[in-house]
Specification:
Chains A, B: One of its GO terms (molecular function) is nicotinamide phosphoribosyltransferase activity. Chains A, B: Residues 355-459 form the Nicotinate phosphoribosyltransferase C-terminal domain. Chains A, B: InterPro entries: Aldolase_TIM (IPR013785), N/Namide_PRibTrfase (IPR041525), NAPRTase_C (IPR041619), NAPRTase_N (IPR040727), Nic_PRibTrfase-Fam (IPR007229), Nic_PRibTrfase_pncB (IPR006405), Nicotinate_pribotase-like_C (IPR036068). Chains A, B: It comes from Pseudobacter ginsenosidimutans. 2 copies of one chain form a homodimer. With 469 residues, chain A is of the alpha/beta class. Chain A has 2 domains: 13-137 and 323-468, nicotinate phosphoribosyltransferase (Alpha-Beta Barrel), CATH 3.20.140.10; 152-318, Aldolase class I (TIM Barrel). Helix content of chain A is 38%, strand content 19%. The first copy, chain A, has helices spanning 13-24, 53-62, 67-75, 80-87, 117-122, 124-148, 165-175, 184-190, 200-204, 209-219, 233-250, 265-278, 294-302, 314-318, 421-433, 454-468, and strands at 3-5, 31-37, 48-49, 94-97, 103-104, 111-116, 152-155, 180-181, 225-227, 257-260, 285-288, 309-312, 328-334, 337-338, 355-361, 367-375, 383-385, 393-395, 400-403, 406-410, 413-414, 449-452. In chain A, strand 9, helix 11 and strand 10 form a beta-alpha-beta unit. Chain A is globular. The mean pLDDT of chain A is 96. At the A-B interface, strand 1, helix 1, helix 2, helix 3 and helix 6 of A face strand 1, helix 1, helix 2, helix 3 and helix 6 of B. Strand 1 (3-5) of chain A pairs antiparallel with strand 1 (3-5) of chain B, so a sheet runs across the interface.
Amino acid sequence: MLSFSISGSYTDLYELSIGEVNFLENRHQSAVAFDYFFRKIPARGGYVVFAGLTDLLDILETLHFTKEDIDWLRWQKFNSTFIDHLVDFRFRGRIWSVPEGEIVFPHCPIVRVEGTWLEAQLVETLLLNILNFESLIATKASRMRYVAGDRILSDFGLRRAQGPGGILASKAAVIGGFGSTSNVYAAQLYDIPASGTMAHAFVTGYESELEAFRAFARSRPEGCVFLVDTYNTLQSGIPNAIIVAKEMEKQGQKLVAVRLDSGDLAYLSRKTRAMLDEAGLQYVKIVASNQLDEHVIKSLLEQQAPIDIFGVGTSLVTGAPDGALDGVYKLAESDGKPRMKISETLQKATLPGTKQVLRMIDDQGHFFGADAIVLQGEEHVSVIHHPFEPGKSLQVTGFKQEPLLKVVMENGKRIAPSPGLTAIAQYSKERLALLPAEYKRFEYPHIYKTSISQQLMDLRNGLIASHKM
Amino acid sequence: MLSFSISGSYTDLYELSIGEVNFLENRHQSAVAFDYFFRKIPARGGYVVFAGLTDLLDILETLHFTKEDIDWLRWQKFNSTFIDHLVDFRFRGRIWSVPEGEIVFPHCPIVRVEGTWLEAQLVETLLLNILNFESLIATKASRMRYVAGDRILSDFGLRRAQGPGGILASKAAVIGGFGSTSNVYAAQLYDIPASGTMAHAFVTGYESELEAFRAFARSRPEGCVFLVDTYNTLQSGIPNAIIVAKEMEKQGQKLVAVRLDSGDLAYLSRKTRAMLDEAGLQYVKIVASNQLDEHVIKSLLEQQAPIDIFGVGTSLVTGAPDGALDGVYKLAESDGKPRMKISETLQKATLPGTKQVLRMIDDQGHFFGADAIVLQGEEHVSVIHHPFEPGKSLQVTGFKQEPLLKVVMENGKRIAPSPGLTAIAQYSKERLALLPAEYKRFEYPHIYKTSISQQLMDLRNGLIASHKM
């Protein structure tokens, strides 16, 4: 059986090399702070749904190097005193984070890891791996939820997922608004409602489509959904589904739905609806699948296709078209001193010091459309500045300013249990409702302002100036 | 610790629903054959590298339902006799496959699963999940290897990978031609050379870049690579690297390389090479990273950028721009009868019966550019037909015709040990060398002909005709 356990070796080699150097230089105990943030919103969208915190904290609470990890490090000739140190390695740091499910924007610190240099360095790769991916998928799911309204969205993606990445994808999809998954492993692990229909192979394996439908209705009359496009949707699939649905009625049973999986879904769903209604089967729902994404769903609903349930696979679980959120993990402070990467361009420079994010809330309680990155301890700012274009600033005295980062882990232990997947999804839904529509549209969404406080700007500019001297 | 073990529940729900229906209909023991094939080559390329077979067979040899799986099925109210049957479920089927690492083309069966309907159905999702993903990444890696020639390619992708999908990605990259990985977990699990350099945070964590380099050289003088773009590549990074490299020389040590991670890599690598050479450091290599893919590598080398090692992340491990190979798993036979999905278009119809693939080899030993899908037992064909366009055919009497599908598993056990990752990568390299260049180019590659034999065409057309009556 292939199995994967995320241990200390779930990392890039250089984290261990750097760890060893800092250990031998006796700097591994230095107090540091690292920021997690991203620069670019996937799919040219207007926002990102932050996801993965629960899994990250679960991992950090028990992270260690297994015996195999240690043996491998010895074989790779890492320094033996350093390896001995890793035998007892545990993550004992503090984590600040925005809530899982929060709506977040480029450049704002979303998570801050405080701890010794060694522990903060060793968790970099796994933190990025989990948060980048789950946030990507939650964001993608959220875009589909946005256009699907109250219709049912179900994840059908495991077969096209990136290996076991599919397990996290099915979970993250729920945070973004999906209601169920075909992925039994994820359904079990994360307590997600499982859903599914039937395969073409089931239909072709019987002597006729009618016989296949009858067999299914006989054995699984509850939750029965017929796949109707194996031979010909309108000439064979729907007529046969109607025959069996009427037979089921005589048994006091109800066919739940038919599934369209090829052809023009707008046309076929309208024809299907009419045929079902004509047969008195108004209660039978229509499921549509086949290369769906948020744009196709939007288009189908604009055409008023009478589809009740969308089954989405590849584009959901792989986060197409982008495949990755570009989140990074950058040193902000060490030994109490603010640190930054200075780059030829301000955009690639990082923001020094330990920071907080203040979200501007208007008098309706909605997001105004600006976050201020401030130094830890600044509770209210009156002016915010564009992070990269000097001279652009904005008065924000009138807004409620909501701090987003809170401590979620102390000494390597969560300070409260995870809210659970349903509560996280609900929180995300409520927060997204506070974001004005112009940030949610797909085409050239309005750009949410990420800004910095005067104090942070002064700190950054001072460090750049001192480096240039 | 988050851990994933691929068990019976690593499946779509409908495989279990169908399994239950067939069980209750007493059809679960029917002998069936399913084909795995894909329809579209990712990234508009000319070929696919088949990967994932070793992992698939590893999984199948021990696949079972865990106690948790069984408990969940009971809770989901699956039929209790069926669940009892699943308690003892093992895969006992036969697998035909092309060799792992083989170069493959659309519509050709790559794997055939023969077994009872229940076992063949229950493995569908995991087979697709593993083979689709590993083949996607091996193909992507192979495209980079094709343009990189003999230069070193290293996978740096774990932080941007799709969660634990990154583990399989790092492995599949080796099949496609990568030499090493930064992913320690995959390096350990699959015995891949591990490689890595240093992070910006390491450099910014020291009082100066020079001090950071010196610390690294002191503690890890072997395999030392300096990241030179933290402040300014040409004004700070390279001069400091040269200072420390010269200091290392006095200790009898050699700096291995410098790494460029931002800016114009063609320009910077040329300047860097000149500065290193000027300092007598001809032996110091140049590593380049930062959003590389096969197109960027090709362009850099066309500009004669003196880069020795490419570190590739996101685009490699996520298979960008496509994110998934569209492989499917279709019923070809049951109870000894050929089966097919009949669709409105021939392209979406499947090919019935148990089949073999014959590859046409020219008198130079190269791939001619055509595979013939034939019925099992046909050892040589003289004419091949276009699968979807009636009337298009080709004489192939002059070619050696190499059968690609061989039995690799009998009664649920491999018939030979896996050749191992190195041998698979070597096989793939040798086979790709037999494919003419026009199929390997990135822009509008020549289309490799996938064709069918007269017997297979007759069988298919007969089934379509009988269904239409």
